[in-house]
Every structure is written in structure tokens, then in C-alpha cells.
Design goal:
Blueprint lengths: L4 H37 L3 H5 L9 E2 L6 E2 L21
Antiparallel strand pairs: 1-2
């Protein structure tokens, strides 16, 4: 067992390298299984990941054409303003 800080850190690096080696070795089988299940069950990307909100535009800046979907922190061009003025129908 490790006796001091440096030995513990060295042991951690060794374990992390071993974990990454095992992850890489197992990854091909995991991906193959996932691909098979997606094909077998006819799973769509929307079912798997949900709707792509980046394509869903709720607000547009008429001056620049920049858009925002209303998710996350508002961009500077709409921050503190009446969002109804920028709403896309």
C-alpha cells in the first residue's frame, strides 16, 4: 500500500491508465450492441436524444438575424427587453 502522497498520486495515475485501457477495449462491443438495438427496435435520433432545440427558433433579432430558442441564458440582443418584440410565430 502507498505510504505517502506521491505514491498515492502515482497509484491513481496507474489506475486511471488501466481504466482507460479497459474502457477502450470494451467500447467496440458496447457500440456494436447499441447499434444493433437501434436497428432492431427502429429507434430514431429524436427518441434517443429528444428534439433538437437548436433548430427550434422562438426569437429573432431583426437587425442581425441572430436567433435564440429560449433555452439557456438569453443573448445580449434580447436581454432586458420585451421578448414579445422578437417572437417568431
Amino acid at each position: 500500500m502507498a505510504n505517502n502522497y506521491q505514491q498515492v498520486r502515482s497509484h491513481i495515475r496507474t489506475l486511471e491508465a488501466e481504466a482507460e485501457r479497459l474502457r477502450r477495449r470494451e467500447l467496440r462491443g458496447v457500440l456494436s450492441d447499441i447499434r444493433w438495438k437501434i436497428k432492431e427496435y427502429g429507434i430514431t435520433s429524436e427518441q434517443l436524444f429528444g428534439p433538437d432545440l437548436s433548430d427550434f427558433v422562438r426569437y429573432r433579432d431583426p437587425e442581425t438575424g441572430h436567433t435564440w430558442n429560449g433555452v439557456g441564458r438569453p443573448p445580449n440582443w434580447i436581454k432586458g427587453k420585451d421578448r414579445g418584440l422578437f417572437r417568431v410565430d
